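Lecture notes, unit on binding sites. The following record was shown on slide 14. It pairs a sequence with AHG.
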Amino acid sequence: MQDGRTTLSKFLIDTLDRQPSTVSTSGLSALLVDVAASIKTISAALTKGALGGHYGSAHTVNTHGEEQKTLDIVTNDIFVQHCEWDGLLAGMVSEEMDDVYAIPAAYPRGDYLLAFDPLDGSSNIDINGVVGSIFSVLRVNRDAPDAASVDTAFLRAGHEQVAAGYAIYGPATMLVLSVGNGTHGFTLERDVGNFVLTHSDIRIPEDSGEFAINASNERFWEPPVRRYVQECKDGRSGCRARDFNMRWIASMVAEVHRILMRGGVFMYPRDFKTPEMEGRLRLLYEASPMSFLIEQAGGCAITGRERILDVVPERLHQRVPVILGSKNEVVRIRRYHDEYDRGADKPYTSPLFNERSLFLPEAPV
Ligand code: AHG
Ligand code: MN
Ligand code: MN
């Protein structure tokens, strides 16, 4: 570019199309340009607010039993319309569609699979708060015995993603993307319509003093999560010997974006509020792409007991516990789960002890 700026198209051509690669990425940059077009269209629709005529409930329920807002459906349709025609996709999965969306016969079919959450944090719409979109791209494994079934083609561990990203619709609209060579942020230049690279190779600080969790669920958490959060709240008078800060925006996109910008931990852990649910967030189009972005930026993402990117989904809309962010904090929370599972955490979680107890052994760092 003559002005020295890198647009999304230039970035994708330089990063994907002009690189020698052992894995074919043919067509991926074109697909990501279509995803970016969806995001620009959604951004324009959201900016209109109540004037856009899309506020309120759609009076329908999605596959998770959640009431759909009109904008959940509008944004879903925008993704479908921008991406179904290009001949690059074999199918799509969305939070707002019960089944795999098969590419209509009128269009050619390709080798990529797109999973997306078209509107994340949609409860924030009514309060003009931050929302986002999340997406994940896989490539059909033609060698797999069940390659012919688009349904099972989606059931792959997150480390197989060839691209993942999100859009954040805040004061500025940003696209944050990884194709496996770091996590990069692009800001939408609204009057021109270009995404411009503004945050190259984002790195998450390994340590942090900020955590995000819906504390109203505390009584349903497992002991290792209660232990971690209690220690954060104890601050400088507790075993962490420093004060922590807490945030909760009710949009995973907004939480992950903050963590990518300045570190921290986000948790939607396993809890016993709804015992049959393994977690709140969905693996294919929330946890998996966000974990990819976090790991590509030097952070960690776990269920508490294993790496999220190693979880092989059994169902399209499977939920999973999520703990992600600054490496050293996530490693600590994983150790707390491990100690709990081994029964080795009793000195730290027993109600007989608190941070001032004479009997509390020195906590390992
Ligand atoms: P969605 O709007 O796509 O259903 O996702 C909302 C998710 C996630 O983004 C956020 O972290 C969480 O739900 C908020 O949950 P609470 O209602 O417990 O705050
Ligand atoms: Mn969501
Ligand atoms: Mn959603």
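Take-home: Residues 353-362 have pLDDT under 50 and may be disordered.
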